[in-house]
Amino acid sequence: MYAPPMAIVRTESRSNMPAPPPSPIPTGRGSRSAANQILSDYLEKSLDVPELAMPESPILPTGVRHQNHWIPDEIDLRSLVSREPESVNRLLESAREIGAFTIEVHGVSEEELRSLEKDAERVFRILEKRDMGHRLHVGAPKENKEEIVWVRSGNEIMDQARKYIGPELYKSFSEKMECVGSKLDDVAQQVRQVFMESLAGKQHEKRILEKHNVLSIHKHNHNVVDHKSGPIPEKNKIFPDQIFTLHLPTKQCRYCVQSEKGPIIFYAGPEVIIVTVGKQLEEWSLGEYKCVFGEMMSQPDLQASNFSIELKCPCPSSLNPRHSFIRRTHKKISIADQILIALIMAFLYHIFKFLWS
């Protein structure tokens, strides 16, 4: 029998449509489908989430080693004072492996650092306006760090400092520097003793007990970017006469230690003191402890400046007695030398005057 064309098209269209889903199969209880269990099993097997590994980062939580990355270990100062074997061993192990460790509960409060930071900002600003040459630019003239080396004895130099920054600000600034410096001295003394005990039997171990520390304050200008060296500090800034150095940032920052294992980057703040091993200690220990260089990293996204306090513990024989508030490259002539030069000039003047007459 002949079918109309429209009927044929309609028949083919219906034959190409997908089959409708099956109707639920009633269970014995009549309330759920028996296919639910099959569907649940299928989803349980197909929706397994694979284990994901986060990418490695140079900024790591505390600990000696984490996922093949070394970071300075944290040592409680109280346990160091009581010479707890576990803390002493962790300190020495961190000094052997990466040349650095951190001290927490060190006794310098954040309030003390904030107050010192305010005075330091004023001092740097006054010296910059007067351009008296009392600041030290570390590295290139436009690099992002400036330094004041604070003299701890010498009336003549202190009189100059009082004259430049004013007696009131000088009194406040010097008292706060001395307060923080004395606490850093106490920490340095404990670190000295630990290293001395570990170097028993080696040459020079007794010389570490001598106390000739150099205190300085650094201003880090994050809005000045050193494109030559990049954000990670260079390793060629190691001073050959240092036993070890204490670094105390006044704010949270990113800190970099340049070690044999490469740059080690971590967060640090006023709650910890970073201790880095110096070249002299590495030589005295016959290479057991590793010399490193540590410095706050530049953060161009920050507009404000950061400050850090630094206490260098140099070899006593290499100390320069002229460490002072003024720029270290600036040569000074004492009053006695000036009087002697004046007498010599007067004597030569009279001799030439006599000869010409």
Uncertain ranges: 1-15, 55-68, 132-142, 318-332
Q: Largest sheet, order of strands side by side?
A: 3-4-11-8-13-7-6-5
Instruction: Kindly give the count of domains.
Output: 1
Calculate the terminal CA-CA distance, rounded to whole Å.
155 Å
Q: Could you spell the SSE succession in H and E letters?
A: HHEEEHHEHEEHHEEEEEHEEH
What's the CATH architecture name? Sandwich
Shape, principal axes of CA atoms: elongated
Q: How much helicity do the residues have?
A: 25-40%
Q: What is the alpha-carbon Rg in Å?
A: 35 Å
What name does CATH use for the topology? Jelly Rolls
- Count of individual helical segments: 9
Q: What's the total number of strands?
A: 13
Average pLDDT metric: 73
Question: Largest beta sheet, briefly?
Answer: 8 strands, mixed
3D architecture notes:
The chain has 357 residues and is an alpha+beta fold. It has a single domain (65-328), classed as B-lactam Antibiotic, Isopenicillin N Synthase, Chain (Jelly Rolls), CATH 2.60.120. The protein has helices at 5-16, 35-46, 77-81, 85-97, 110-130, 155-165, 167-198, 279-284, 335-356, and strands at residues 65-66, 69-70, 73-76, 100-104, 136-137, 145-150, 214-220, 242-249, 253-259, 262-268, 272-277, 293-296, 306-314. It has an eight-stranded mixed β-sheet. Helix 5 crosses helix 7 and helix 6 (155-165) crosses helix 7.
